[in-house]
Design goal:
The complex is a heterodimer of chains A (288) and B (203). With 288 residues, chain A is an alpha+beta fold. Chain A is built from 9 helices and 6 strands; from the N terminus they run αααααβββαααβββα. In chain A, β2 and β3 form a beta hairpin. Classes of the chains: A alpha+beta (288), B alpha+beta (203). Chain A: Keywords: Signal.
Chain lengths: 288, 203
């Protein structure tokens, strides 16, 4: 018990150190920033769950501090981007209170697949550089795990399919169609349909949705698209019931640095599918 | 821009609709446990083997980058350094002022380092590193990432020509192997370095 109290005091003292500590620090003495930084996503998981010491030594279930709620509260308060004022303290505190509840604690599990990596990349497409967003998720294969492509957002594709009511929320608008007696005339009117390329998707079935990942792989295989570079990576977490948060990497010369929560939202479980779709497919979510 | 405002608007628009689009989410029960987790003692051994290889790499970089190293010796050290890596490994380099991560094959990276030829290369380590958990890959190997921080200084004479402080995220591949020693099977861990991302930091 005494060891635990001393340790928590030490952690709080280190995490609460003011930025004044940054003044005049030379590289090799500047380790408190490195120590405080959430250096890997792995460390974010471990700190979130209370599964490691302040210096990164792993706790196991036999250790007294493993999953300790007080330790988690200290860590969690420093896992938010403190310079983002769009996340009110009341909301952050409510989240921390919720996930560290003694009777119903919530932990993150990287093998639970309801979290996504958003990777912003550069693609050379038809001899021009284009930004492109890849979404990856974790999947099991054989005995191990791997990241797999779940979706692609690529503006040259999405602009081709502007006529598709992708989210299913547009009011009915009359459009072109193949009339119900077309079979009697051997579908000779198809020629006219295929000449109307701007509205061609109106001739598709209700359940039609363009699959951008298929298109992306097709264009890579055809040699029309070429992968160039990775620009940025962030993560979307849906694992905590009734919450969503975003994780991004921030490089700063202070104690609030590394992989941090950069957005937090209360989202009812029934509405999470809408948010996933928004993140995956909505143009406002992509810098294209 | 934060998602909140946009999502709220979007949510209002779709709240009463019943989209036909396929479900992209997964049930919260979809998770998988690793079949053969490495026990803590073995993990400590593997961690120390990985750190040893990373320290070797650092020494080699200092030798390769120094003009005082004869060309033939530098080539020999490059070969030794390449032996530390799994085939096809790359180094990605990112700087604070550029968004892209530039990638080099590991051999190309060493050749570029040789061409820089400082009179002296100083590499100093921060005494903190972070070693991730090991995860099993589909082919039964384990993979982890070691993060280290280093200060690199390239000098010509006494003049400092280049310096940076970087965070290096180094992939390690770990494989359990068996070899025969005097008729008995001996288990051992083989550790190889893999892809590396070098990021300039503000430290």
């Amino acid at each position: 018990m005494k060891r635990r109290s001393i340790f928590l005091i030490f952690v709080v003292a280190l995490l609460c150190s003011s930025e004044a500590m940054a003044q005049g620090v030379s590289y090799l003495e500047g380790n408190e920033f490195v120590l405080a930084e959430t250096k890997q996503v792995n460390q974010f998981f471990r700190r979130f769950n209370g599964e490691e010491d302040y210096d990164g030594t792993r706790f196991y279930s036999s250790d007294s501090l493993y999953h300790d709620p007080m330790l988690r509260q200290v860590y969690l308060s420093n896992l938010f981007d403190k310079q983002d004022y769009n996340m009110p303290d009341s909301m952050k505190n409510s989240f921390i209170f919720n996930v560290t509840d003694r009777y119903s604690p919530k932990y993150l599990n990287h093998r639970k697949n309801d979290w996504y990596a958003q990777v912003d990349v550069i693609i050379n497409y038809e001899n021009q550089k284009h930004p492109c967003t890849l979404f990856l998720k974790m999947e099991r294969e054989n005995k191990g795990t791997k990241w797999v492509l779940a979706n692609v957002y690529f503006q040259p594709f999405t602009s081709m399919f502007k006529g598709v009511d992708f989210f299913g929320n547009e009011p009915y608008k009359p459009g072109p169609y193949l009339h119900p007696k077309s079979h009697e005339i051997k579908f000779i009117n198809l020629k006219k349909a295929f000449d109307r390329l701007g509205e061609i998707e109106k001739y598709a079935a209700n359940e039609f949705n363009p699959d951008y990942l298929t298109l992306f792989i097709y264009e890579l295989k055809r040699g029309n698209a070429e992968f160039l570079d990775v620009k940025n990576v962030k993560f979307h977490f849906f694992q905590v019931d009734n919450w969503y948060f975003e994780l991004s990497s921030l490089s700063r010369k202070n104690m609030n640095s590394g992989w941090l929560i950069t957005d937090l939202m209360r989202v009812a479980e029934k509405d999470k599918e809408i948010l996933r779709k928004y993140i995956f497919f909505h143009e406002n979510n992509h810098a294209n | 821009m934060t998602y909140k405002v946009l999502f709220c608007l979007y949510f209002i628009l779709v709240f009463f609709s019943t989209p036909d689009t396929p479900c992209i989410g997964q049930s919260s029960a979809d998770y998988f446990e690793e079949e053969e987790p490495i026990d803590p003692e073995q993990k400590l051994k593997v961690d120390s083997m990985a750190m040893e290889k990373i320290r070797d790499l650092s020494k080699y970089i200092a030798i390769i980058g120094s003009k005082n190293t004869p060309f033939s010796e530098a080539n020999r050290v490059v070969s030794r350094a390449l032996e530390l890596f799994a085939e096809g490994s790359v180094i990605g380099v990112s700087s604070l002022d550029k968004e892209e991560v530039k990638q080099y094959e590991i051999k190309k990276y060493f050749e570029r380092l040789m061409a820089l030829s400082y009179d002296q290369v100083k590499i100093q380590w921060f005494d903190i590193q972070y070693i991730s958990d090991l995860e099993m890959t589909p082919d039964g190997k384990y993979v982890g990432v070691v993060t280290i921080y280093q200060k690199f200084e390239g000098l010509q004479g006494d003049a400092l020509i280049y310096k940076d402080v970087t965070k290096k995220d180094i992939t390690i591949y770990v494989e359990r192997k068996i070899m025969q020693v005097e008729g008995t099977h001996v288990n051992f861990w083989d550790v190889l370095l893999g892809d590396i991302v070098v990021s300039e930091t503000v430290l």
